[in-house]
Design brief:
CATH class of the largest domain: Alpha Beta
Largest sheet: 10 strands, mixed
Shape: globular
CATH superfamily of the largest domain: Response regulator
Distance between the termini: 62 Å
Structural class: alpha/beta
Number of strands: 23
Strand order of the largest sheet: 2-1-3-4-7-8-12-11-10-9
Strand content: 5-15%
Low-confidence stretches: 1-17, 255-275, 277-302, 707-745
Length: about 750
């Protein structure tokens, strides 16, 4: 009885700590009297027109300023304006000096620095580390309008402009670099961005709650260095406070058989709840794909059971340790991802020299009412007039689309959505979404009646969640859909079906398309949804992302096997035929993902050939900071399981030659790749795939117009381009079929 009471008290303490003040419940700052700006100002002239003598907060962004909720700086700017603050925008400033950072004067409260909607390094460089020739977030797609590691550069210039103004950093670039992280572009482990930027505080994830509370507390006179209790923030401490119990990360995830300790925070699982349980020995149960299910053991010190969870801090391996030992880096990555559920996550601390980088627990997700509040703010829904109507590709892409949710419980190891937005799905109400569609219809120039997307990080996770709030708060799984769809997950798509029907019946709406990536392993759980989608919301092509055909690779991606793809394909074709429509699936695949061997790529190429897919564009894996696949890339270890020096080794394609070869296998149909593929197949003992028959992957001949030039080392190939007007499908020697319409992207 005593133990039951203790367990109840502990859970009450946990849930009490999760009560969050609604973002729309704060008393507005006094400057609310100035009202709403038609556009947040980017110049002193605009400030004068609004009657402002100064800005309370200045947001610095690597993107052009587009007043639309799909752009982070606009969403945060309008949210802070609704709280009563005067917010100015410095978009894509000239970073060569501090002059551009003084254009709006000195902010009264703080500078907020963001790289923009994308990580600046991903934005500026290809997967092969080559500078991109354009930038979708810049007027006229002009390149080089932002620096490398924009948060660091902008932070330095803000400090040069006004050294005494507090500096707050955020956005996906800062969020994914909140601890020591592997940097693909410099090929080394870098320190937390907090250290290098000299920022006062970092806000990670979707930061509405944190930015609102932080702003009001600074406005009330609190020093930013004293504000250390807001969830979703990171800052620097000299030492761990005495009231916190340190739990070494190695106690959470160490090798060997571990005696079970009573964990007062663990779920008491009933029948049917086994999929959320953990294994004391840290072993992985076999999943639906024959792959290992990512689970963990929680061997907390006995003393920890008496300490409230919000007074425990996980001691991560130090910066110096993860730099010198890739195994410790992979271990740190694993622990960080396991401490990601807002319902049970604890604070993390990582030493950098004589300083401690402290991460508070993740932010509490927004409720539906709060999501509506944020997305219903008075956005102008257009670029700032200073751009004089210039084409901004990112704006054109989302101009007629609506974001209906955020977050992703898929947990794909190569993707950063989960690390940034979290695994808890946050959905808007139907009314809010329908109002936005009507606003697009009535206010956005060029609307022709077609909504290009109702989606978000995924197309079909709207209002999906765990069947039990208690299980959801206690679950520590890395994914709700790998190795199979969790039996505790509600997969009912009826709310989304209803939303689609109401949206397409609005006056003036001719078509609702779905452009976000579809999670097809979830979709097949709801045939009614697949039918609704296929018969009403596909514009001839539907993109989905199997990513690979081989189980060995899919297990490192935490993606479903091809059985789910085949099932969805059957449904797609059946419902398309019933509607009398010719529609095509567009599959996406990744080359050079950790765990991929050349043999895996051969098998994928053969799968593509059997299914008559000829892809023009191929994604090559890019290791982004904090992704679990990046930990695999850097360490050669699999952090989906316990990481030790003797644990599973993961093959990694790092050299440019291997990465190009794996990409070439996916584009097996391109004659310019044939010399490279023939040479590779011979070396691999697969010359049987070279020939002119249907069973062969590449032909034995080379079109006369393509002259092979083999370099002296024999490792790389170059080919002369085909002459203008040359049609490879009409060449007499060309034996392959012409590409099926839509069978590519």
């Amino acid at each position: 009885m005593r133990n039951s009471q203790a367990l109840l008290v502990t859970r009450v303490e946990i849930y009490t700590s999760l009560i969050a003040k609604p973002v729309n419940s704060y008393r507005p700052y006094w400057a609310k009297r100035f009202g709403t700006a038609p556009m947040l100002p980017m110049s002193r002239a605009e400030m004068d027109a609004l009657g402002w003598d100064s800005c309370d907060i200045i947001l610095v962004s690597g993107d052009a300023y587009i007043d639309h909720p799909s752009f982070g700086v606009a969403l945060i700017g309008r949210l802070l304006e609704a709280q009563g603050f005067r917010v100015g925008i410095i978009a894509q400033p000239d970073w060569q000096s501090a002059a551009a950072f003084k254009v709006l004067g000195k902010p009264n409260l703080y500078f907020g620095v963001t790289a923009g909607n994308m990580d600046s390094m991903v934005n500026r460089y290809t997967a092969d580390r080559k500078i991109r020739s354009d930038d979708a977030y810049t007027p006229n797609a002009e390149a080089n309008k932002r620096p490398d590691r924009a948060v660091l550069v902008y932070s330095q210039r803000c400090k040069e402009a006004y050294s005494d103004v507090p500096l707050v950093i955020g956005s996906i670039e800062a969020s994914l670099r909140r601890i020591a992280h592997y940097d693909y572009w410099s090929d080394k482990v870098r320190r937390s961005i907090l250290i290098d930027s000299k920022a006062d505080i970092l806000l990670y994830g979707n930061a509405e709650r944190a930015i609102v509370e932080l702003s009001h507390r600074i406005a009330r006179g609190e020093a930013v260095h004293d504000i250390q209790d807001i969830r979703g923030t990171a800052f620097i401490r000299k030492q761990v406070p005495e009231e916190f119990l340190e739990v070494p990360s190695t106690r959470l995830d160490r090798p060997g058989v571990i005696d079970k300790h009573e964990d007062p925070y663990a779920m008491k699982m009933g029948k049917g709840d086994a999929s959320c349980a953990t294994d004391d020995k840290g072993s992985e149960a076999s999943g639906a794909n024959g792959a290992a299910a990512p689970t963990i053991s929680l061997p907390l010190p006995l003393k920890a059971s008496k300490v409230p969870r919000d007074r425990q801090v996980i001691r991560m391996p130090s910066y110096e340790e993860v730099v010198s030992d890739p195994v410790m880096y992979a271990h740190a990555s694993r622990v960080l991802h396991l401490e990601a559920n807002p319902g049970n996550a604890r604070a993390l601390v990582q030493r950098h020299g004589n300083r401690e980088v402290w991460l508070n627990a993740p932010p509490i997700p927004l409720t539906t009412k709060e999501m509506d509040y944020v997305y219903d703010l008075p956005y102008a829904r257009k670029p700032h007039p200073s751009y004089n109507g210039a084409n901004i590709p990112a704006w054109e892409m989302i101009r007629f689309s609506v974001n209906i949710m955020r977050g992703c419980f898929g947990g794909c190891t190569f993707c950063s959505i989960t690390e940034h937005e979290g695994r808890i799905i946050q959905s808007r109400s139907e009314d809010s979404i329908l109002r936005e569609i009507e606003e697009i219809r009535d206010k956005v120039d060029g609307f022709t009646g077609v909504i290009s997307d109702l989606g978000g990080p995924t197309a079909n996770m709207y209002r999906l969640s765990c069947k039990s709030e208690e299980i959801e708060k206690n679950c520590r799984k890395l994914s709700c859909v790998y190795p199979g769809v969790c039996e505790n997950l509600n997969t009912d798509h009826s709310s989304l079906i209803q939303l689609y029907r109401k949206a397409r019946n609005l006056r003036g709406v001719k078509k609702i398309l779905i452009g976000s990536g579809l999670r097809y392993d979830l979709a097949v759980k709801s045939p009614d949804y697949v039918k609704e989608l296929v018969q009403h919301h596909v514009g001839g092509y539907l993109k989905i992302a199997p990513e690979h055909s081989e189980e060995n690779v899919l297990s490192k991606m935490m993606k479903p096997g091809m059985g789910a793809y085949d099932e969805f394909k059957r449904m797609f074709e059946k419902f398309s035929a019933e509607a009398g429509k010719k529609q095509y699936l567009i599959p996406y695949f990744i080359a050079a993902h950790p765990g991929t061997t050349d043999e895996d790529m051969i098998n994928l190429a053969l799968w593509l050939k059997r299914n008559d897919f000829r892809l023009d564009q191929v994604q090559t894996f890019t290791p982004t900071p904090m992704a679990m696949a990046t930990a695999m890339y850097h360490s050669g270890k699999n952090p989906l399981r316990k990481v030790t020096p003797d644990s599973e080794n993961v093959p990694v394609a790092k050299t440019g030659t291997i990465r190009k070869l794996q990409k070439a296998f996916i584009r097996y149909h391109d004659p310019q790749n044939w010399p490279m593929l023939r040479e590779a197949l011979k070396k691999m003992g697969r010359a049987d795939l070279i020939g002119n028959g249907k069973k062969h992957l590449v032909p034995a001949y080379q079109p006369a117009v393509l002259q092979q030039i083999v370099q002296s080392d024999g490792s790389r190939f170059q080919t002369k381009p085909m002459p203008k007007g040359f049609n490879q499908t009409k060449n007499p020697a060309y034996k392959h079929k012409a590409r099926k319409p839509g069978a590519g992207r």
